[in-house]
Amino acid sequence: MAYYPRDFASRRVIGQLPMRVTSISRPHLWIILAAFVLSRVIVVASGVGSMAVLESVEGPEYTHLLDGGPALDMFYRQDAGFYATIATEGYDWFNDRAPSADMVFWPLYPALTRLASGISGQGCVWSPYLSTCATIGGLIVSNLALLASCFVLYDLARRVTQPRTALIAVLFLLAAPNAIFLSGVYTESLFLLLVLLTFWLAQTGRFAWAILPAVLACLTRSVGVALIPALLYLAWQMPREKRILSLLLACLPGLAFVGYIAFAGLWVGDLGAYFSAYEGVWGRSASVVDVVLVYFREPVALLGWYPSWFDLAFALGYLALALATLFVWKQRAWGLFALFALLIPVASGSLLSMPRFGAVIFPFYILLALWANRPWKQLAVALPSIALALLILSRFVTWRWIA
Fold first, then answer.
1. Per-residue DSSP letter, 226
2. pTM of the full predicted structure?
3. Which residue from 165, 168, 221, 171 is spatially nearest to 360, judged by alpha carbons?
4. Which residue from 362, 350, 212 is spatially nearest to 281, judged by alpha carbons?
5. Phi and psi angles of residue 127, each rounded to the nearest 5 degrees, phi first
6. What whole-number distance in Å separates Cα of residue 97 and Cα of residue 269?
7. pLDDT above 90: percentage of residues in the chain
8. How confident is the model over 353-367, as pLDDT tens digits?
9. What's the confidence (pLDDT) of residue 188?
10. What pLDDT, on a 0 to 100 scale, did the predictor assign at position 349?
11. Which pLDDT belongs to residue 285?
12. Rounded (10°) CA dihedral 64, 65, 66, 72
């Protein structure tokens, strides 16, 4: 029978929970490490194989790395080009003091990418080409963050369930349909790690320290503000003498979010530049109504850029998991984060990328692991997930991006 404990906050002992890290058994440690390595090898092998067998979209806008081979080039797709360029050359909006498309990409991930790549004026130790250097740097950041996320997720899950269930949750993460993004030059893994650290610190008695990764999450992706409702909820559960200060601290991530937008706007002379770039360049209209109406007024494809049934199916599935986390499992803080992490991109007026956005909502992996308490249930989750991962990966590396 699945175990559904009540959430930490309902115990009203936030700030008093044990601060030690839950020990991980040696077998589970080696299983996680082996699963991480094996899953990443499969990602690379599948990507290289897809590029060799499948026809790729060609054109001047579909650029490739000049060296490194297909095992590296497969990750240099779509948004990865923006992150690599920002890491090597900085923001166009900053350099030119004018609104630009790269304004919607938040600064922490490209900054860490530049640091990890060791870029200098002559390239880096791996390559004379800056795009290759930045791609390698991004892969280092993403995969280290993913590995760290596995252990934080395990420990966080272990605190509300059993070690075996926590292990299954980690394995589900490594087999997620969005595997290519979790390992690629994208913000998913870094954001996931910061979110996990936020909840791990908040729910193990270090609420003030939890604000730091929450602030950093808001400087990684705009959806980082989804942490604020959860932090406010946890702050409200604090003892009365700590409640006011905790509520104020919970608002600090929002200041980081507003700070970047305000600084960029002031720098280019247009306070609304971030939002105009988001709408004009990326087609995000901040209209929830459009999310629904587009499926009735335009042709809808099974897969593709926009609109597609694929995106809608993932969005509805994620919504069901978020509501189950909030109202069935009654993990209130986790459920609030999950719900707002979905509603924020939906409110932009498009379901494009929803399959990818849901990959960073960690409670889903634990909830599915709780349900999958039998081998057949585990296969029912893992096999379709792996199949979708291979589908998304093959389309991504051949420039047919869907997620």
1. G
2. 0.92
3. 221
4. 350
5. -165, 150
6. 8
7. 69
8. 888 999 899 999 999
9. 96
10. 76
11. 62
12. -130
How many domains, the chain? 1
Cα-based angle 39, 40, 45 (whole degrees, multiple of 5): 100
What are the Cα distances from residue 25, in Å, to 28, 31, 96, 193?
Answer: 5, 10, 53, 21
DSSP letter for 305, please: S
Question: Range of 267's domain?
Answer: 8-15+24-397
Helices (H), 54-91: 70-73, 79-89
Whether residue 390 has pLDDT greater than 70: yes
| Share in percent of the chain as helix, strand, coil (round to 5) | 70, 0, 30
Q: Does residue 301 sit in helix, strand or coil?
A: strand
Least confident of 61-70, 220-229, 385-394: 61-70
Residue 354, token pair as written in the block: 């929803």
For 314-329, the three-class secondary structure string (H helix, E strand, C coil) is HHHHHHHHHHHHHHHC
Per-residue model confidence (pLDDT) at position 308: 87
* Assigned domain for 402 exists: no
- Residue 256 located in a structural domain: yes
Give the whole-angstrom CA distance, residue 229 versus residue 337: 7
Identify whether 321 is part of a domain.
yes
pLDDT for res 193: 98
Q: Does residue 329 belong to any structural domain of this protein?
A: yes
For residue 166, the tally of other CB atoms under 10 A from its CB is 25
Instruction: Write down the pLDDT at residue 290.
Output: 73
Phi-psi region of 100 (alpha: psi -120 to 50; beta: other; left: phi over 0): beta
State how far the Cα of 213 lies from the Cα of 201, in Å rounded to an integer.
Answer: 9
> Residue 22: its pLDDT value, please?
56
CA 356 to the chain's CA centroid: 7
- Residue 263 has a pLDDT of 96
Mean pLDDT of the chain: 89
User: Which tokens hold the place of 295?
Assistant: 């499926």
What is the DSSP annotation of 119-157? -BTTB-SS-S-HHHHHHHHHHHHHHHHHHHHHHHHHHHH
Q: Using CA atoms, how far apart are residues 158 and 160, in angstroms rounded to an integer? A: 6
